Amino acid sequence: MKTRSLASRQKAPLIGVTTSEVRPKERVHPVPESEPPAVEMALGLPYLKGIEAAGGLPLVIPPLDTSAIEPLLDRLDGICLSGGPDLDPALYEAEPHPELGPIEPDLDRFEIDVAARADAREMPILAICRGTQALNIVRGGALHQHLPDLSTEVHHRQTNPGTEPSHPVEIEADSELARIFGGEELEIADVNSFHHQAIDRLGEGLRVSARAPDGTIEAVEDPSRRFLIGVQWHAETLVHRQAEAALFRRFVDACRDDGAEYERAARRREVA
């Protein structure tokens, strides 16, 4: 199989971004001159812009047949798991909560499969909001399906713009997230919040690296990995700030290093 050159990987690693949701075209009010109604993918541009600004080359991953996942991952240097609707509780063997929001089971299962296979390859992974929850499920964890059942101290569905923070999080000392955000000591960061669900049972190998004042898990990471971090807030809409910009840069740098090592290993296999 012919892969991209080592030079291209070092210059701009190719990073796959999962689709946030699929939806009928009618939901975006088509005009008469539009194409016929069809199911379409939806993903916010800030994910792609954040990766591009950090030096990566983003590629949106459509919900394909699962047979396409391994060949796709062969060509990618990292994965960004995006935000989106609630996840199907069947994924972690739970009954639906009465307040469960709309779910997309087919998309959920494709995203979980992508995340699981990327994780098995130890690829760099940046997970955001729902993506963090998906990563936790891949590691055998479970979710709180309706956060207001736990606490109303923090409004996790803010009404102000996503480019603005709405509540603080406490970042754990000596975590990778703390180092990225500017120091190894325990610190407070203000973040935005647009989620209905959150991590309940923590997945295997994950460490909590930030919590909200009400105890909600706001970030996780795997200390054994080159880069595997999930944040519950929408970091992609906060990249105008130094901390979130640094998070995306660190992710892209890890993808660049990982992709270059993958290419070197492929060349060694060809010679052998």
Q: Your description of this structure?
A:
There is one protein chain. It is globular, with a radius of gyration of 19 Å. It has one domain: Rossmann fold (3-Layer(aba) Sandwich), CATH 3.40.50.880. It is built from 7 helices and 13 strands. The chain is of the alpha/beta class. 30% of the residues lie in helices and 20% in strands. The strands form 3 sheets. Strands 4-1-5-6-13-12-11-8-9 form a 9-stranded mixed sheet, sandwiched between helices. The mean pLDDT is 89. The longest helix is centred in the C-terminal third of the chain and has 30 residues, at 242-271.
Assign the CATH superfamily.
Class I glutamine amidotransferase (GATase) domain
SSE ordering: HEEEHEHEHEHEEHEEEEEH
Name the CATH class: Alpha Beta
Per DSSP, what share of the residues sits in E-state strands of 2 or more residues? 15-25%
Low-pLDDT runs of 5+ residues are none
Sheet with the most strands, sense and barrel status: 9 strands, mixed
The overall average pLDDT, rounded, is 89
Radius of gyration: 19 Å
| Shape, per Cα inertia axes | globular
If strands are numbered along the chain, what order do they take across the biggest sheet?
4-1-5-6-13-12-11-8-9
Instruction: Give the number of DSSP strands.
Output: 13
Q: In DSSP terms, counting alpha (H) and pi (I) runs of 4 or more, how many helices?
A: 7
Helix content: 25-40%
Query: What's the CATH architecture?
Result: 3-Layer(aba) Sandwich
CA-CA gap between termini:
15 Å
* CATH fold description: Rossmann fold
- Give the total of domains: 1
Please state the structural category: alpha/beta
